[in-house]
Design a protein that fits this description.
alpha/beta, TIM Barrel, 8-stranded parallel β-sheet, 11 helices
């Protein structure tokens, strides 16, 4: 099975990959504005799906603490979780209590339950588990019971319990329903899947987010590793240096950042060297449309 580890390992042996952001010493990570406010976010965040669903034991937490510390050291702030991710929220809270720089965290999670009372209880538990006084972003996970939960989100935002509200999806089969909510409801954020291999969001959702002034979080940027399998027999092109990409991971992230509607990408990882590589994708130049087309053609060839 081809994974990111085997692809990166092979490139590293030939000197074609840098696992740390070489521009970090003389530049800052790129930031983009949340349209509903004047606040900006670093363009690379950290997801916790699957990777943070571990027991709170020293042996399992140690590598994840290294991931989170690398994230903060390289300029990251937004960490995204969900009650759907098992123990991820509790683990995130534990790691935030230990990591240097975690005071700058932009904490995001989701409500994933039916019923108003149940939603309130779940959201309060998420706030407690992640160890934050105010949740920066609360999202309705995969539109579950969205009409009911959105009422609570608005009320809690007005009361200052949460700062921003949004909805999420990770599958194209939900896009029609997702677009209807985007069109009819005032939202600060939408989270959706988008990558070189899953480009359906370009048709309606990303243009709508741009037109309506909604920030976007991008999940599945590597299609859970599928993108690395697609380039297993390809060398990273020399011209990737024109957009400051020195690895396939950075190449894939830069393509996504080339879309003007993208605010922040949230790849998940349990390895610090992958975290450093992800963060490097947020430094330097971003491809224009002509370069993005060239990137697509190279990967597809």
């Amino acid at each position: 099975m081809v994974t990111r580890r085997t692809v990166v390992g092979g490139l590293g042996a030939s000197g074609l990959v840098a696992l740390t952001p070489t521009r970090a010493m003389d530049s800052a990570i790129l930031r983009r504005q949340i349209p509903s406010s004047s606040e900006t976010l670093p363009v690379i965040g950290l997801g916790t799906s699957r990777t943070f669903n571990v027991e709170s034991e020293a042996k399992q937490l140690a590598p994840l603490l290294e991931v989170v510390q690398t994230f903060f050291d390289q300029g990251g702030t937004l960490i995204d979780s969900s009650p759907m991710y098992g123990r991820a929220e509790a683990v995130t809270g534990d790691l935030l209590s230990r990591a240097r720089g975690s005071g700058d965290v932009f904490a995001a999670t989701k409500v994933w339950i039916e019923g108003a009372a149940e939603g309130k209880a779940q959201m309060q538990e998420s706030i407690n588990l992640m160890g934050v006084e105010t949740m920066d972003l609360m999202q309705i996970h995969n539109l579950r019971d969205w009409q009911v939960q959105l009422k609570t989100l608005r009320r809690w935002k007005d009361e200052g319990k949460i700062r921003y509200i949004g909805i999420t999806t990770s599958r194209a089969s939900q896009y029609d329903a997702f677009a209807k909510v985007m069109a009819s409801e005032p939202l600060d954020f939408v989270q959706l899947n988008y990558s070189m291999g899953e480009r359906e969001a370009e048709q309606v959702l990303l243009p709508m987010a741009q037109d309506k002034g909604i920030a976007t979080l991008i999940n599945r940027p590597y299609m859970r590793g599928v993108m690395f399998s697609r380039v297993k027999d390809k060398a990273l092109p020399d011209w990737a240096a024109e957009i400051d990409a020195s690895s396939w991971g950075q190449f894939f992230l830069k393509f996504i950042l080339g879309h003007p509607a993208v605010t922040c990408i949230i790849p998940a990882t349990s390895k610090a060297h992958h975290m450093a590589d992800n963060m490097a994708g947020g430094y330097g130049l971003v491809p224009d449309q002509a370069m993005r087309q060239r990137m697509l053609e190279y990967v597809a060839a």
